[in-house]
# Entry
Amino acid sequence: MASNRKYWKSVEELNDNSSIVETLRNNEFVEEIPTDEFLGDKDTLSSSSTTRRDFLKYVGFSTAAASLAACEGPVVKSIPYVVQPEEIIPGVADYYATTIADGFDFVNVLIKTREGRPIKVENNRLESAYTGANARVHASVLSLYDSLRLKGSKIDGKSASWSDVDAAVKASLKEANEKGGNVVLLTNTMASPSTDKLISEFIAQNPTTKHVIYDAVSSTASLDAYERVYGERALADYDFAEADVIVSVAADFLGDWQAGGYDTAYGQKRIPKNGKMSKHIQLEANMSLTGANADVRVPMTVAEQKMALVKIYNEIVGANVSVGATSRDEAVVKIAKQLKSAGNRGVLVSGLDDVNAQLLVFAINQALGSQAFIPSKPKYVRKGNSAQVAQLIKDMNAGAVHTLIMSGVNPVYTLANSASFVEGLKKVKTSVAFSLKEDETALQTTIAAAAPHYLESWGDVVIKKGHYAVMQPTIRPLFETRQFQESLMVWTGAEGAYYDYLKSVGSSMVSSKSWNKIVHDGIAEFDAVNTVSVAFDHAVAASELAKAKKVDGLELVLYTKTGMGDGQQANNPWLQEFPDPLTRVSWDNYLTMSRVDSEANGFKNYNVANGGLNGSYATVVVNGVTLEKVPVLIQPGQAVGTVGLSFGYGRKAAMKEEMQVGVNAYALYHDFKDVQGANVTVGAGDHEFACVQLQNTLMGRGDIIKETTLEVFNSKDVKEWNIFPMVSLDHQEVRANSVDIWESFDRSIGHHFNLSIDLNACTGCGACVIACHAENNVPVVGKSEIRRSRDMHWLRIDRYYSSEESFIGDVDVKNAASGFTENFNMFKELENPADNPQVAFQPVMCQHCNHAPCETVCPVAATSHGRQGQNHMAYNRCVGTRYCANNCPYKVRRFNWFLYNNNDEFDFNMNDDLGRMVLNPDVNVRSRGVMEKCSMCIQMTQATILKAKNEGRVVGKDEFQTACSAACGSGAMVFGDVNDKTSDVAKLVEEDRMYHLLEHIGTKPNVFYHVKVRNN
Amino acid sequence: MSEFINKESCFGSERNVKIVPNLVDNHFITMKKVGNHNSFSKILFFCLAVMFSFSVSSFAQDAAKGKELFNSNCAACHKLDGNSTGPALRGVVERHDTQWLHKWIKSSSSMIKSGDAAAVKLFEEWNKVVMNDFPALSDEDIDNILAYTSQPKAEPTVVAGGPTSASNSGASGDVNNMVVLGALFVVLVLLVTMLYFVKRVLNKIVEVNGLTPEVRQTTPIWKAFVKNQFLVILSTIVLVLVGSYFAFGFMMQVGVDKGYEPVQPIHFSHKIHAGDNGIDCKYCHSAARSSKTSGIPSLNVCMNCHKSISEFQGDAGTDYGTYTPEFYTAEIQKLYDAVGWDPSAQAYTGEEKPVKWVRIHNLPDFAYYNHSQHVNVAGLECQTCHGPVEEMEIMRQHAPLTMGWCIDCHRTTDVKMENNEYYAKIHEELSKKYGVEKLTVAQMGGLECGKCHY
# Structure
């Protein structure tokens, strides 16, 4: 229908003479299009060698070429061995027993190698092995393939051969000998009898030599105390399996206290058996992993901890040392009474950096007659002597050191007075640093000697008295490296190789096993005389300790993070991306602060629109040293008046750019004291954290983490503390999992895999996270991607705080609320964790639901279910709709937003040939645009089945493992075949404590949990 | 379909391009040279055979026995031609006195000890390697061996004679076809010419008679077709369907490399090793028993045999195609170069040059395949998937290696559960459940995605 009506777009059009209307009529766009800028520049256009026609030709040709090339597979070359080593069959893994001893971590491990490449660290499961590999140990295999390693020795920054190095060092030693100059060997704790012998031979030949041992994070107080009482520089050992009551005063024994390794024994006693489990009480300032696992946790400042320790001492020993009042006296007295009544089944440990405190620990444990206290067989994992290190720096500055030979230490990075060390270094004629990398120290010395990684080295380690362990190479040295020991032998002119030397030392020490058997097992026991104590006056120590005073300003408690430790492996992307078990923050260190202090000082934490967490910056001044731009993280459970900061970050030398994160806390480690008085003020700007968990509390959802107390667990019926969701069927109340709209598949035949996770035994240490990383080629995505919630971890460990004093309190609050307003306010309140919350860790991976919601929504059937209970994921079939992730109630599916290998945007280990050597050849490297998730290590279960088939036998009891269950040191994760009624997991699934995550939605998962029981 | 498959060669496949000239060559040979070559070689063969039989007959009995004895006693260290651990033995009777040889063979060590000049010289010359004593050999045996060593060297043409005669029968078939086709072509051309002339004659007749031929006004067929919408739609549908059928066929074979036969850095003949010599596959591919890969044998495995087999001689009755013994010997030399073996010094030089084989079976990374499951547990013959390897001069991919191919086999193959404790329980229970006597791999769960994709 034609119409002559006129429509106006604006009133202006009514005016016929308007110039605007005219302009608009002529110009399509109101604003001028900058075509002239582009086309008007005749010079550029004419000088361009590509004409429009050429351009089209190129486009056409490249499109055609690309599509043609896609039709043709590339020619793949295969290069077999010329002479194949007998023990290697391509495609079959070999395992070697060895020991990590990097000065910080000491564990017996098994190394899985494929075609001669170490690809994974496993626990050595032999009876007497020293287990408990933590996240760092599991990640250490990647540090072997660090592309920034020192690939050859250097003299004055220029590449040099080993013969040049030898000549230079020998000449310097000769000169030192002739002129009487001092030679100093500065090493980390090696606990190696053969190295000790070599050093003594070196000293015999160069009499002016002094050997100084330096631990980056000092344990001098404990060592001094032990030396005073037991006459030896070592650390008393503890066996928590023998303790019913554990009182820990700031000892993070599930973390790095005394090099850790206590998880297994601790975990055993945490699983309630016959109505009993150990009771764990923790007094501490920072919220540590150990504190998070405690039944009772009392946050207090370090000064108060010292006073509390004296009070406990008074109670146990019956002394009457006068001591001031603490804020929690009532709790302390109760703890002391509980410990006393436990008698020899009680134990007290302490991580206080104070000789007197450590002396009191001995006194208390001796008075208790504690069975868990084993001073007779001490540990040799820390030997550093801070006083000697301080003296060395003085000597160096005085010009009294002629030659300095360092191994395994990085003092320029780890010393608080690093500047003075560097100054002193200039006065040393020859300085040698044996180092894996061209680190801060190696850059300053005259000679940077390339040292091999522990997986390329021979060695021996005595972790504790009577326990001998061998370190053996699992790969030929990748670079032109030579061991410190080998070099000592060259410089002393000793005959033969270090291996022969090691063998003769080891064979003479151990008589119970042949040398080959020792190397095969990695460990052996030898007879050693028990260490006995001498009398000491602990009353003096107690009265000294009672004088403890609060420091000025906030109490800064320096600590080591589970993921980073002392910072040796700071260039390890797995560890950088590993979220801290407590804060769930990766790629950073930060100042942990209590809510009260943050509010008082104006520090803020808030979430931004994309879910990322932001925090204020702080300026920290300690002893005149200022640390700028330290991000502040509000940590529930942090003792008021204290702040925490972790070591190991802020490194710059030999680090990839993305990994140069955090601030260097060593700068504040004045006088090797881990407690400092700090002046903390608000700095400018906000920091962007990469935190993987948005929700801090459980919000009273008692069906995710089920929890009860030992009292209820022992006295009440299972229905009261492990409440099963019920639904109505035919007007009858029935268990939710008995009703189903699906037809069930009969799984009673063949294998049916289940994974059991005991929330009581899980300490949240995260070894499983890294083991999963290594086993399944999980990519590292980097800080900014983590911040966008695009982390790729197949296995995460959720950490929940309670909003009330306990989780059960949360549930009560939630149930009591009624009406909209009350509910609304109540939930708002529940979002805030308590000042001293209970903490629960929950590892969550794909639950392998028998009735999986993800499987039904996949439009291309890329995810499907196997007879053996595993939820399969066929990556090559996946088109990336992400429906499955949306439909997953557990949020365990991970989407590959980008190509994470061979991509310069993600410059981590998968971007270089060396770093890719760690990849597991049995597992796909996923590409961009596909969904991935935990496969329940199907490559491992299939390999176990195939092994049995090849050998013509049934699969052995508990032979099935996944990477996480194999890595779990505390016994929290147990994997197996529930159809094999003899297996552990079949018994666990029948236990009263068993529950499924979100059981009411009827997914019937193959992963199940055990109700957490607290002994408070 | 075949037409489309051939198209693959257009896409510049290296392997296909290499096959084509060979085929062309063969045709030229067969078409042009066949006649003469055939008769000539027959005559040559006959003459040689006669000559050979004469020369052989003079030693007849002795040499045959001698060959047997030589192979069992001497061949480990000696060859007829060419030095090995010991010197070449052809014509040894010309170098040494027969009596002296008898003594030497029976006990060379005692001769050296007694200080026999020739013996000591020989001992010194050959790096003081003591030759084994053979006291058990009788004089007659030694004579037989010496007779065998005195035979003149066989001419290589004898071996080469085989293939040419063999290829003739196939070629003559081609010729017959060509003749028939040629004749048909000539007939067709004749017909066309005849029709042309007939038309011309008829036109001339019309012209002569003064008639104009009636020209009917007809719509061209394509216009009629365009006007008929039904036909257009129908044919479009047919075209689309046929087009997508062929397009689908073409797409599906992209990346399927069945028949892939790349040129390898060393011409290794599976036919000679696995076929003629009957070496078990798993002697070289030993990892197939225990690993996911069958393993390309490392060169030290080759050297187990090739330390003493340094040249190719071949068997008289076997067909080696166009390959000459010299060619094969040169390939063995390539192995020596790679492994760093000096055949004249009988020692490793230490200069290794690993061989870069071209991988033939390229299973994609997202598919997990384990040889030991199939070879050791299921007891499959290698040939089931790799085809008649023992007949392949050049190794090629026999199976398509597509998922459909895997699955088809899993659907139809029974699980081999005999004498395997692992299967006992599960097989009993599952077969009862499915009501079958024997379970297929599929029924055991062999079709599940996650069994191969992880």
Summary: Chain B has a mean pLDDT of 79. The first helix of chain B runs from residue 2 to 7. Chain B touches chain A through 61 residues (CB under 8 Å).
